[in-house]
Amino acid sequence: MDYSTKISTQVASVPRSGIRDFFELVQGREDVISLGVGEPDFTTPWHIREAAIYSLEKGQTSYTSNLGLVKLRKLISGYVSDFFKVDYSADTDVLVSVGVSEAIDLALRALINPGDEVIFHEPCYVSYSPSIVMAHGVAVPVATTKQDGFVLKAGALEKVITPKSRVLMLNFPTNPTGAIAPREDLEEIAALCIKHDLIVLTDEIYSELIYDEEPHTSIASLPGMKERCILLHGFSKAFAMTGFRLGYACGPAPLVDAMMKIHQYSMLCAPMTSQVAAIEALQNGAKAVAEMKESYHQRRDYMVRRLQEMGIDCHLPGGAFYVFPDIRKFGMTSKDFAMRLLEATNVAAVPGDAFGDSGEGFLRCCYATSMEQIVEAMNRMEKFVISL
Ligand code: PLP
Question: Who lines ligand 1 at CB under 6 A?
Answer without folding.
Answer: 38, 99-101, 125, 171, 175, 203, 205, 234, 236, 242, 247
